[in-house]
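Ticket #4471: structure output looks truncated?

Reporter: J.K.
Steps to reproduce: submitted the chain below (355 residues) through the standard prediction queue, then opened the result file.
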Amino acid sequence: MTDESFHDLARAPKVALPGGPRRWVEDSFRSLAEHFGTAVLRQPVVVPDEFVPAGYDGSAAAAHAVCVRVCERMGVDPGRVHFSFRLEQVTEAAELLGSAMLDAYVDPGNGYSRGTPPGDLAAIRTHSNRLGTASFEQVDRIIEAELAADSSESFFRLLVTRLGAGEFGAEIVRCLLAASDPRAPRTANTTAVPGRALGRWVDLGAKVHGLDPIPDHCAVLLRSDVIADPAKLLAVVSHELSHELLCRPAPPWASGPLEEPLTDLCALFHGFGVVLVNAAVDEAVLDDEWVHTSGYLGEHALAEALALYRFRQHRLLRDGPLLPDWHQLLDPVPRARFAAHLEELIGGPPTVLGW
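Returned output as attached by the reporter:
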């Protein structure tokens, strides 16, 4: 693979988009405008140095204040959102809990699986590598340590329990699918390894066995290292809060396999395009063996979506030159793609046409 094709792959959407990225972005942008209205486009684009308070120190308190500001900008009631900066710890404990629940489920002495077809239990024993890898005592030790370190994390146990139940259910589904397809690998999943996800949205109103739902509330979990970089913090929080926006109420076109790229586009639609574009690819390590990318829509599609955003915004506001000063804040590659797509949208260079 050439360096050019490798770079293009790193900047491309992470999932196939029907009709191609440009067509999908245009269609989805139109759906977002119909759903949220165009008043959102009348607000100025979010510029990190202007949006984040001066003196931001990367502390949890400072990060929480920024998260509240993002809520307010996006029209989400911050009183309905629980923010946590311990995604790694919650994920570790939830994965262990899911594995411990599997052990209890297949143990005939517990009775948890009473009435379950024997074939289903056999599928779990055959296809899961998570059996025997964790215990409830391990989970309790992590929870107790986290609560001792920070008593403000009162939701920690609830989040672990909720996400652990999801891990348990997902592993059962994977095992049953593996058992139903003789061509599938013997193991449906290996012991869970912490991923590179920077954030996660959790619907606290969703039904989970053994937990009381908290209607119309959610949690946004962030990696602890995200808060050191306020621009990255804005990108991740705006994406996760877009899940909340697209959930209550949920339009029919906002769910399914394209939910994540649509969530990226929703955050861009609400003014966070600059930070999303710049967070999409870590330019500092682009030529290394491992390249870190963020989001799902990809840098190329995000840059063109931001051009469409600016084009639609300018048609509403006629606020000076079409090519805005803030485009200089974009990284060089997406900045060039942004300007080129603006030219395509208006039929010529913005400066030549006097926009």
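Triage note (M.O.): checked the attachment and the full token line is present. The CA atoms of residues 7 and 286 lie 7 Å apart.
Status: closed, working as intended.
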